[in-house]
Amino acid sequence: MKIALCQMNILWEDKNFNKNTVLTFVKEASYKKCELIVFPEMTLTGFSMNTINLGEESPERSDTVLWSSKIAKDFNINIAFGYIEKLKDKAKNNLVIVSSEGKILSSYSKIHPFSFGEESKHYLGGSDFITTSISDIEFGSTICYDLRFPELFQILSKRSHCIIVIANWPKERSYHWTTLLKARAIENQCYILGVNRVGSSNGLNYCGDSMIVSPLGEVLCHNFNNEGLIISNIDKSKVEELRNDFKVKLDRKETLYTLGYKRSQI
Description:
- The chain has about 270 residues and is an alpha/beta fold.
- It is about 30% helix and about 30% strand.
- The protein has helices at about 15-30, 50-55, 65-75, 150-155, 175-190, 235-245, 255-265, and strands spanning about 1-5, 35-40, 80-85, 90-100, 105-110, 130-135, 135-145, 160-165, 190-195, 200, 205, 210-215, 220-225, 230-235.
- A hairpin with a 2-residue loop joins β6 (about 130-135) and β7 (about 135-145).
- The chain is globular, with a radius of gyration of 18 Å.
- The termini are far apart.
């Protein structure tokens, strides 16, 4: 499958401007025959805590999701993107995937709100592990800070050939981002799609470093600090062959790990 990651410069809280950017890159990815394009976290707003003004309804009624579904159908491409879902008291930071037919395939709510950045004051953490099937390839969904929690990736990779990480990851911790993307690919023997934003917003700088990493931890394509697409093919047979030849997952002792967690709390 041919996949595009869009490393974009998100204009702070300006949905209309960012829609034009998204549309430009959807057209380019479609022209280049990509089956899936992935955008950064909170695609049309940036990493905002302004949930009252920027939050939208559930995926089925969200203006952003409906708009994305239309352009996905118009340009015959699957699209993965982030948006803010407004709830009664707080909100959810979501990753939605819509099909090339304009249908909602999945919606994932970020399990680990970023407490250091006060995200947890405004957003509720999700509790569901979400995978999505596209052209017989299974994709796991994660968002930004989730990358620091390897247990989530181990759970998703039981079914997934590839795990998506959409992010607004600041430049000052970029080394953590690039290192953890490779580590998650190696640990889970799957592809990792890490798409980050570039530019500056609300006092933070972002350097991108979007990349597609192979199940062996090899960087197949990488964009450091420029807005634009990176494109690569992924092949689920490579995941299956590696897992069959080097059976790391069969050697895991998950019952013991669970017991260890319980004992550590005594």
